[in-house]
Amino acid sequence: LLGLLLLAGVLYLKYGQHYEMDTEGVKKIYRYPVRQELIRWHEIEKISVRAGLTQTLLRVGNIAIQPRRGEEMVWYGLESAKLVKTFLERGLDESTSV
Fold first, then answer.
1. Which residues, including other chains, have CB under 8 Å from residue 76's CB and lie 6 or more apart?
2. pTM
3. Could you give the CA distance from residue 68 to residue 46 in angstroms, rounded to a whole number?
4. pLDDT digit string (tens) for 47-78?
5. Residue 26 reports pLDDT greater than 80
């Protein structure tokens, strides 16, 4: 039973949400229940990659987006997490230079 609950949690993290970035900021969108989290570009303080040994070997990782105030947003299980971080930092730079 515990194994099934763990599997359900992993599947929810993998397929129950997706991530977007646009001119407004970064979003974490949940499919069930339908809701979204948004951190606007000017609110972002820090973006970092978190990956353990297994994740590094599998070339996946988590992106932690820390706002100036409030709770961080974590994007889970991303392929090429370092590349995604680079794109997010580029979006952050472009939004603050305008």
1. 13, 14, 17, 62
2. 0.80
3. 8
4. 999 988 888 788 889 999 999 999 999 998 88
5. yes
CA angle (70, 22, 20) in 5-degree steps: 70
Residue at token pair 């932690």:
64
For 97, half-sphere exposure in the C-beta direction (CA atoms, 13 angstrom radius) is 6
Is the model's pLDDT at 88 over the cut of 70? yes
Only one residue has tokens 């090429």, namely 80
Strand-pair partners of 65: 47, 73
Report helix, strand or coil for 35.
strand
Dihedral pair phi/psi, residue 40, rounded to 5°: -70, 150
